[in-house]
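Chain A, query sequence.
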Amino acid sequence: MFSSSDYAPEGFAGLPGMHARGGRMFKAQYRCYSVTMFTDRKEIEEGGKIIMPPSALDQLTQLNTQYPMLFKLTNPGTANTTSHCGVLEFIADEGKVFIPYWMMQNLCLAEGDFLNVESAILPLGNYAQVQPQSKEFLDIYNPKAVLEASLRKLSCLSKDDMLKIAYNQKVYQFRVLKLKPADAVSIIECDLSVDFAPYVGHEEDERQQQAERQKRVHPLEQAAEQLRISEEKRIEKAVREAVEQSGGFKVFHGAGNVLDAGGRGAKKGRKRGKAAAGSGGASSAPNGASTDGAAENMDSAEPRTRGVPNYNYVKGTLTFARVFPKKQDLDKEEDASFNAFGGSGHCLRKRRR
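Chain A, predicted structure.
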């Protein structure tokens, strides 16, 4: 939000009747030239006001034109090309007007072309949406404040106008997309809300950024992939060396180990071993290896008790298993050590014979 102010042009401040509305409208045709051909004042080129001849001031005074004076500019060669502006001074040569060069570009005018100028009454604006023509303007610090400060130099805005703002030795362009409450509004002494539309070319930039994100791999993911590949190569090399040292690859070669040595599997294994020994001695495995060694290992293995898993285990902690005697074992120990009325008695007084 910002509030802009305008001042009366030099030479007519305080004239009577400037705030009254006249029944007729001012309209004239002049040859237009850029402001740089009249003066070197940079603020005039960056603003949105024109310099008119003194005769225009006389006509406007007689017509009781409403103040602040606003004008509609039309290119007679292309009637659809219009814009709006304010007036700065009435000191131009007769038959000529001097306007900022960026306004001449909007109106498609060259030096010395004819320009129609007519008075206009515009409502106060309350909303404006502009579109930056490049992404560079959005990269500066607080671009909205820079835009609002530049708009204070203007008197009015027209839809589809191309504004030029000079900041930090660079010139940025903006196109006016939306205006409220009309397509042409006055921004003198008003609260105007300014909004930015996506800059020109943002869709192409978004597609390029998305393609780059897809191609770009996170450093951690890349390192993990390299570690996985190196680990696979190391394992493959170790297996190859082991096969070469053993003299070749043998199917199902090696000794077996029983995990449940004291459970049902061990008992069944011992029974199979005894049955094989009773039926005809040692039996052979598919690769020719004897199973007597395995049977002897199972027979000689000490029976183990199956443990109970800790369902309350917490990751990252150590749990020390403690085996407590069962209640039945405690009862047996008490029975073995305690015998009711099993002691010997003593008498304090001997019996008489």
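Residues 219-245 form the longest helix (27 residues). The longest strand covers residues 78-89.
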